[in-house]
Design brief:
This protein is mostly helical. The protein has a domain at 103-309. 59% of the residues lie in helices and 0% in strands. The chain is built from ten helices and no strands. Helix 2 packs parallel to helix 10 and helix 7 (189-212) runs parallel beside helix 9.
């Protein structure tokens, strides 16, 4: 390996035979010079990295200027209460109370619309004649009821997004009101009003009981489901063995079962100390559950009253 020697003129400035540097701009520190004395003095308020002033020490604090706290610090003073929402207690209790108010508001609107339609079929003769002359509308209303119910029960995007959830709820309530109105054509107006009054008393009493009792009914979902299957089978058998006694027993069992369902759904909506609860986002589903409980109680009581008349 050969020894390579640099040419005699090679070297750095300041060495013998070295090439000179090209001319520099004024103020640029020449190599080997004093770095601190070659730069022009920094402007006022300029803070170099590290807090130094090119060997002259840190700058004195300026009035009205908040120094940064750390490398990526902010120049804004922090509010010690920034994580607190002032003037509003946004906790689980307040959310649940707002959820309950929303559910009962929607439920009242549903019941008013439903029984408003029913009152037309019971008290208005032209509406009664329209329902009797157009039996095909019953199947249309039944199809609309089933489709909208499945959409709201199975599709979370339908029952959670407004205004789609309110539109589906309104269509379902209107179709259900029409079906119930057609069913009431078999009964006298006083029987319908009696069933309506009994239903109101029962539902109000059970709601108060569900709010006040220490018993937790939310763990009975399996038992209630099995009882509902048994009631469906019994109702299918009454088609072949029908009679006054069988109808009264069937109506009584149905009213009792959906009374328990009303307590169960009310406590699911309440949340809190109960074992299971429904999410506050599911206000449409909770409203739908309570509405179906009330409607089923009304229909089973009306069945008992009609069977007692015969």
């Amino acid at each position: 390996m050969s020894n390579w020697q640099s040419p005699p003129n090679a070297g750095y400035p300041g060495q013998q035979g070295g090439y000179p540097y090209p001319p520099q701009n004024p103020g640029y520190p020449p190599p080997g010079g004093n770095f601190n004395q070659s730069y022009p003095p920094p402007g006022p308020g300029f803070v170099p990295p590290g807090g130094g002033n090119f060997g002259q020490g840190p700058l004195p604090p300026q009035p009205g200027v908040i120094p940064p706290s750390g490398m990526y610090g902010s120049s804004y003073a922090e509010d010690p209460n920034r994580d607190e929402v002032k003037g509003f207690d946004f906790n689980e209790k307040s959310i649940r109370l707002g959820f309950i108010r929303k559910v009962y508001s929607l439920l009242m609107c549903q019941l008013l619309l439903t029984f408003g339609i029913v009152s037309l079929f019971v008290l208005h003769k032209p509406t009664q004649q329209f329902g009797m002359r157009n039996p095909g509308l019953i199947w249309v209303a039944l199809g609309v009821t089933i489709v909208t119910l499945i959409c709201m029960a199975c599709c979370s995007s339908v029952r959670r997004k407004a205004p789609m959830n309110f539109i589906f709820l309104f269509i379902f309530t209107g179709a259900e009101g029409f079906l119930i109105g057609v069913m009431t054509l078999r009964y006298y107006p006083q029987e319908v009003l009696l069933a309506l009054g009994i239903t109101a008393v029962i539902c109000f009493s059970l709601t108060l009981f569900a709010f006040q009792t220490k018993w937790d009914f939310t763990g009975l979902h399996t038992v209630l489901f099995v009882c509902a299957i048994g009631l469906m089978i019994f109702g299918f058998l009454t088609i072949f063995w029908h009679g006054k006694t069988t109808t009264i027993i069937y109506g009584s069992l149905g009213a009792i079962l959906f009374s328990f369902y009303l307590i169960y759904d009310t406590q699911m909506m309440m949340g809190g100390k109960h074992k299971y609860s429904i999410s506050p986002e599911e206000y449409v589903f909770a409203t739908l559950s309570l509405y179906l409980d009330v409607i089923n109680i009304f229909l089973y009581i009306l069945t008992i009253i009609g069977a007692s008349r015969d």
